[in-house]
Amino acid sequence: MAAEHYPRRDWEASDELRDQFLLDPQVAFLNHGSFGACPRPVLARQGELRTELEREPVSFLHRSLPARLREAREILSLELGCQAHEVVFTSNVTTALNAVLRSLPLQAGARVLVADHEYGALVRAWQAEAARRPLQIVGVHLALPVESPAAVVDAFARAGEGEAPETLLFVSHITSSTALRLPMAELLALAAQRGWRVLVDGAHAPGHLPLRLMELGVEAYGGNCHKWLMAPKGCGFLYADLEARQWLRPLVTSWGATNRPEAERQGAFLDELEWSGTMDPTPWLSLPAAVAFRKRWEWESRAALCRQRLQEWGEHCQETLGLRRISPVDSSLQMLALELPNCPLAAADLHHRLFEEHGVEVPTMELQGRTLLRVSLSPYNREADLRRLENGLVALGAVSSTFSNSH
Question: Looking at the domain assignment, is residue 2 inside a domain?
Fold first, then answer.
């Protein structure tokens, strides 16, 4: 029996808004969180920039690019709550944070606290760094379901007990697999009390949460702009405070300041990290178009309706399909992770079959022996996308037969 459906709500995308995206109309795309979706006007602007680049590459890359990047950084800094000289564009957050962890002047035997909810690519990066120099990677277990922000803080506090030459707290602002907004203020207070350094993976935060990086009090913060800010793929950034800007080094050594007249030099942080060699800078230069698109379509107001709808849908799934929340209700997020306690399929199989058999694009994963489903709800989505996911879960036997047969 098909899952119980909600009627159409005000949050649904109009045809005009939906047409602003190239998304396949045959697919219920509920995975904005992975790679985002770039609007047509932003892609058009990127196309214009690419045409200009190819028409006169030397003039574009050598003469005009520095000034264009400064303008784009100014707009980005307004979104991040920092100064333009404190942020540099990168291709993605993984690249940004790899530059930080490779550069960090940590003492021998320093302890790095990493939760088991962290993004796998960055966990691997820390493991690789620990193989290169003497670091202790200390896993922090955040047991599911996460009962409260206090439980998260307590877990980090326990993991950081005992002596170590130095401790670094590495955390995601919003976790990727579990869509959990970590209690940043409380964790930073703990770090300040214990004398820990802090590095933040903000992959999902820009365009999703209000940011004031200058007030946050972290040495470095990496993020993506291709997700919730809806810039083209290849647009990320690295924020660094005054101290971090002194020790940060690029992953790739290129021309740096040596290729610029002295009057145009911006300091080692920007000069060294901004240019790694011939590349396509148009994703970065298209960021202003993405910000303008969001303003033109009153994106924050639309996103607020999505957040409200997502929480309602989560309650509906618990009541009618037997899915379980894995964290407290958080009305600030457009992502929600739920556990499927009676799913007979492996997460990878469920992901494959939802897409191939039901046209639903939604991530699934396994964590702590649980099968999880993470739904992103964007203003371009419709109620029919959620209905198709529900019906797909029922058809595949991924939800409790008791619930699906009785509703």
Answer: no
Q: How many CB atoms lie within 10 A of CB 79?
A: 21
Confirm whether 34 is domain-assigned.
no
What is the residue-level pLDDT of the chain in tens, covering all 407 positions? Answer: 344 444 446 788 889 999 999 999 999 999 999 999 999 999 999 999 999 999 999 999 999 999 999 999 999 999 999 999 999 999 999 999 999 999 999 999 999 999 999 999 999 999 999 999 999 999 999 999 999 999 999 999 999 999 999 999 999 999 999 999 999 999 999 999 999 999 999 999 999 999 999 999 899 999 999 999 999 999 999 999 999 999 999 999 999 888 777 777 888 899 999 999 999 999 999 999 999 999 999 999 999 999 999 999 999 999 999 999 999 999 999 999 999 999 999 999 999 999 999 999 999 999 999 999 999 999 999 999 999 999 999 999 999 755 555 44
The structural domain count of the chain equals 2
- The type of residue at 401 is S
In a domain, 8, yes or no: no
Locate 328 and state its tokens: 């407290």
Pair of tokens at residue 98: 């790899």
CB crowding 96-130: b at 16 or more within 10 Å, else e = bbbbbbbbbebeeebbbbbbbbbbeebbebbeebe
CATH number, residue 344: 3.90.1150.10
Last residue of a domain, one of 294, 311, 346: 294
| 194 and 338 share one domain | no
pTM attached to this predicted model: 0.94
